[in-house]
Design a protein that fits this description.
Rossmann fold; 6-stranded parallel β-sheet; alpha/beta; 3 domains; 573 residues; single chain
């Protein structure tokens, strides 16, 4: 016998049917009926009250990226809905599964410019997989089921459900049916065995093969088949920024990060490879540099769940439209065992130059008073035995974290890749820690990005979220300063920052912390930070002249690599 319940209660029950146990949000008038129902389900559905709606969506992103589950956000109409726009765009670019529920004015007021009305569907359609307005209570369960299926299937991404007040307060007969199929939507294309065979032939004939691993490897839980393929055919691997942690940093075939601030070996050899196997990556401009000079000798095998990525930036010789794990598993028996010793050694030779010319200077500047970001991040990684989740904000702190933090298991690097959203780091770290309370979560943040969402210290305080915050403080917008230094004649326009006493701010929220002004203090400070599972803030004094190298400037070929401001690497030496 069916049971009549309100649309608001149907929404909460639908979330539970989808296995949701945590939501991030902020209440308001147009979503109060839902919050009233949440009150009765607080033993089953944990709600994390953030301090700003942008904090809610970034926290849900961190939760989704670490857990592999769909993150859920609930906010009100108008400004509440508008405040999640940045996070929606970020999640869309970085393929993060989210269901974002926004309140909306009553149906009779739609289109009348009523108080706190915003055209949420119109605004969000370009930056979501699906954006839908629910006007009737009986449509709530089906809309939720559809939303979760779309968000998590195929190439993951964000979905918005804009729910009018009428749909929340009206009654319906309760019934829930999960969605497993939508006509005209094909998130799991059939594997093209002919394309797999052609890819295997290219790999077997290659003398200088190379794998480029993107976040799609992690999203597909494809780390194991990727490693087995690389080991069987002895193929070196380079990772995109968001592909980091898809295989352990210490794996002998892991040769580093690709792109603008990537490692020399993988960038130089991208333009020397004769076959490139690109898995779950989209050839972002930060990876390719000048596409006219990108991988000129290589046959490109592109494996991706999203067919729109094929030939968008780099032409593919073989396009495999498939789940990364399925494609790699199909390739494995067709690929021959091989040895590419001299080719692999060339990566190590180039990377050895980087060790001598860049890394040693970054990690061992003992003669200088002020610390570098690289040495701090490197030592945090060691202090956590390379087992922590690293969450970053955006800028120099992000690039240095990607370069110097080490990973031993998947889903250990969380950052804003495609959109490059400053302010992402702090709330994303909160979500990551809530998703994986048993893991150490380290946030690396600059003083600029930290202040963009600094109010989320209140969320940490309320829920005692044990995030370890390492504030790499150079009193500058560091990445912009670097570009001004290199390309704008050292005219530091609006990049110096007058900052507050961050430790006093944290103390006001009941969060322990300390200032670290010399490298001699680092080890003891790390020990205090990691002594328990409580939140902690280290405000570390960083040299403002510190810059991220190597660097491939915009518009240059990927093997045009600056070692410092005045030196370009010669790969033929």
């Amino acid at each position: 016998m069916s049971q009549s319940i309100s649309g608001a209660e149907a929404l909460v029950r639908s979330l539970l049917e989808e296995g949701v146990d945590t939501v991030f949000g902020y209440p308001g008038g147009a979503i109060l009926a839902v919050y009233d129902r949440l009150y009765d389900y607080s033993d089953k559905l944990r709600h994390i009250l953030v301090r700003h709606e942008q904090g809610a969506i970034h926290a849900a992103q961190g939760y989704a990226r670490v857990s592999g589950r769909t993150g859920v956000v609930i906010v009100t109409s108008g400004p509440g809905a508008a405040n999640v726009i940045t996070g929606l765009s970020d999640a869309m670019m970085d393929s993060t599964p989210l269901v974002v529920i926004t309140g909306q004015v009553g149906e009779q007021y739609l289109g009348s410019d009523a108080f706190q009305e915003t055209d949420v569907v119109g605004i969000t359609q370009p930056i979501t997989k699906w954006s839908h307005q629910v006007r009737r209570p009986e449509d709530v369960p089906a809309a939720v089921a559809r939303a979760f299926y779309i968000a998590a299937s195929g190439r993951p991404g964000p979905v918005v459900l804009d729910i009018a007040k009428d749909a929340q307060t009206g009654l319906l007969d309760w019934n829930y049916e999960p969605v497993r199929f939508i006509r005209s939507y094909n998130p799991a294309p059939a594997l093209d065995r002919l394309a797999i065979a052609r890819a295997a032939d290219l790999i077997n004939a290659a003398e200088r093969p190379m794998i480029l691993a993107g976040q799609g490897v992690t999203l597909a839980d494809a780390s194991d088949p990727l490693i087995r393929l690389a080991e069987k055919a002895q193929i070196p691997v380079g990772c995109t920024l968001l592909g980091l942690s898809a295989l352990p940093s210490a794996h002998p075939l892991m040769k580093g990060m690709l792109g603008m601030h990537g490692n020399i070996g993988v960038n130089v050899n991208t333009n020397r490879a004769d076959v490139i196997i690109a898995v779950g990556m989209r050839f972002d401009d930060r990876v390719t540099g000048n596409t006219d000079a990108y991988a000129p000798q290589a046959k490109i095998i592109h494996i991706d769940i999203d067919p729109s990525e094929f030939n968008k930036t780099v032409p593919a010789d073989v396009a495999v439209n498939a789940d990364a794990a399925e494609a790699l598993k199909a390739l494995l028996p067709l690929v021959s065992e091989a040895a590419h010793d001299s080719w692999i050694a060339s990566f190590d030779r180039h990377n050895a130059v980087e060790e001598q010319t860049v890394k040693d200077a970054e990690l061992h500047r003992q003669s200088q008073r002020r610390m570098t970001m690289g040495e701090v991040i490197d030592r945090v990684s060691s202090a956590t035995a390379d087992k922590a989740v690293a969450v970053t904000d955006v800028g120099q702190n992000q690039m240095m974290s990607a370069r110097y933090f080490r990973f031993s298991e998947p889903r250990s690097f969380i950052s804003s890749g495609g959109l490059g959203t400053m302010g992402f780091g702090l709330p994303a770290a909160i979500g990551a820690k809530i998703a994986a309370p048993q893991r150490t979560v380290c946030l690396f943040c600059g003083d600029g990005g930290f202040q963009m969402t600094i109010q989320e210290l209140g969320t940490i305080m309320q829920y005692n979220v044990g995030v370890k915050m390492i504030l790499l403080n150079n009193n500058f917008l560091g990445n912009v300063r670097q570009w001004q230094n290199l390309f704008f004649r050292q005219r530091f326009s609006q990049t110096p920052m007058l900052n507050p006493d961050f430790i006093a701010v944290a103390a006001a929220y009941g969060i322990a912390g300390e200032n670290v002004t010399s490298r001699e203090q680092l080890d003891d400070a790390f020990a205090r930070m990691l002594a328990d599972d409580k939140p902690y803030l280290l405000n570390v004094d960083i040299d403002e002249t510190d810059m991220v190298f190597p660097m491939t400037p915009v518009g240059k070929a990927v093997d045009f690599i600056m070692l410092d401001k005045d030196t370009v690497y010669d790969p033929n030496n």
